[in-house]
C-alpha cells in the first residue's frame, strides 16, 4: 500500500508538471499568434479535454476568442480568433459542420436567402387573404349580436340604483392608521362589554 501511494503521488506530480509545461507551450504559441499580423485565426491540433480547457484559459487571459470544434472527443480541436476578426454565426456554423469557411460562398448564401425572403413576401402580398375564420370575436359573432348591439347596450346603461352614486369624499378614509385601529379596538371593547 505505501508503494502504491508513492507511485500515485509520483504520477500526480508528473501529470501536474506536464500540465504546467503544456500551459507554457500554449502561452508561447498564443503570443506568437498575437504577434503574427497576417493571421486572423489559428487552428490547433486535436487535444484532450484538459488540454483544451487550458488553451481556452490561455486565450481568454490573452484577450482572444476561442471555440472548440469536432464531433469525437479524440478529434476535437480549438480555434483561436483575434478580437478584431471574431467569427460570425455563419462562420461558426460552418466550422461546426466540419466545413472550411469561405466568405464568398457565405455571402452568396446570404444573398440567396434574402432573395427568397423577398419572393415569399411578394407572393404573400399578391395572394388573396386566407379565407379562414376571423380573429376578432366581434367579427366571429356578428351574425348573432349584430354590429350595433354593443353600442346600443352601452347607450342604455344606467347606474344601479342599489349602489347609488357615492361622492369621492366618502370613498377616502382620511383617518390615520392609529385612529382607525383605536376605533376598531373601541368597537371590540364595546361588543365584549355588551356580551358580558
From TrEMBL:
Q: Identify the gene encoding this protein.
A: Spag7
This chain belongs to the protein called SPAG7 protein
Segments for region (Disordered): 116-139
CDD domains recorded = R3H_sperm-antigen (cd02636)
Read off the PROSITE patterns from this record.
Answer: R3H (PS51061)
Q: Which Pfam families match?
A: R3H
Q: Which intervals hold domain R3H?
A: 20-83
Specify the species: Callaeas wilsoni (North Island kokako)
Q: Which residues cross the membrane?
A: none
Q: Which GO terms describe its molecular function?
A: nucleic acid binding
